[in-house]
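Protocol step 4 of 6: structure prediction from sequence.
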Amino acid sequence: MTNATTPPQRHAAAIRVTGVEKSFGDLAVLQGVDLEVAPGSIFALLGSNGAGKTTLIRILATLLKADAGTASVQGFDVATQPDRVRESFSLTGQFAAVDEILTGRENLVLVGRLRHLPDPGKVADDLLARFSLAEAGDRRASTYSGGMRRRLDIAMSLIGDPPVIFFDEPTTRLDPQARIEVWQAVRDLAASGTTVLLTTQYLEEAEELADRIAILHRGRIIVEGTLAELKQLLGPAKVEYVEKQPTLEEIFLALVGDKPVSPAGTDK
């Protein structure tokens, strides 16, 4: 078995972070973060509020400068080649960045024109179909459900075919059905070859989507690996004499120290 703390092979990284540090005044938010994300994979970054997830995403998106360490996207250094980095990714935050006065199609066409695409109308129609929004394309975005708005937001982020997408807690405040819709959109992106770096507080989300998972705690990556590798860190528990694998929630809470985990064989 691969050690759960061993990163992917260096020659294949779409995103690489080495020794990144960031402080705000006396508050050290990132304290030497290392991670690598393979092309075409979904990498989930888990952490509690204040763990530094959004700060790391903002550094990768060239919106913040790291105090120390290096980071690259598609081989371009975020500090010395910010323009090339910005051409390589799209960022979807916690709020859907859609214009509610415009229709779904008009939102997409607007972004296509801003990016100087030769046929933004065709691009808009293709994306509406891809995200199951064709029938709603001529409706104002203000009439969309939460899941539809988020899917439109994701579609807008794909204009220009960025090879990397950062999702910073994309299902925050969405209902369960809308969350499932977004999960499927993320799976489809990875299936098409897009690299996805996902930050989330929803442990089930990481379990459902991620090829690899890292837990960021107090500014450091404390463990990283596949879900199967992380489960082996705790080992199975016994529930009424039936072997039970630990959930990702149990792993997370055990590692960050917020909740004791019952010894194997004591759960009832």
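Step 5 (inspection) to follow. Confidence is low (pLDDT under 50) at residues 1-11, 260-268.
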